[in-house]
Amino acid sequence: MAGYKAHLAAGMGVGFAGGLWLIFSASLSLIYLPIIFIATIVGSFLPDLDSDSGRPIQILFLTIGIIASFLGCYYLVIIIEPGMLYVVLATSSIFVIVNFVLKRLFMRYTVHRGIFHSLVAVVILTLSVNSLLLSLDLNLFDSIIISSALGTG
Predict the structure, then answer these.
(1) Of all helices (H) and strands (E), which one includes residue 77?
(2) What dihedral do alpha carbons 97, 100, 105, 111 form, nearest 10°?
(3) Average pLDDT of the residues of the chain
């Protein structure tokens, strides 16, 4: 497929159709449909992560930066309880480090059509996400559904 738009369109189609098929054939709850859909869309972005000029890498690191900043802010405010200036500086620093420093390192050490375009990456990603979800005390069935949807994307 050519580019992230084709991967995204295919991921949306597969995620929605696969989610509906699983719901009707396996008698799953309707709550699984958006989870499967989102996991498949995220998985469809992964083949284009190693493109330095691509939009998926910008979306990924922007999202990771926002989530890491939010988690850092939450940790500081709830656990440590420092002054507001310290929270703002630390949260901004986390975002800048993730969105600029880590992104540049990632772009420097990956090549387009590299490991992210291989079946090995799909297997590693699927098993890693499954292990992560199981370590977060998600039940086995749910973790298999989510990690498989991510790998299918």
Answers:
(1) none
(2) 150
(3) 80
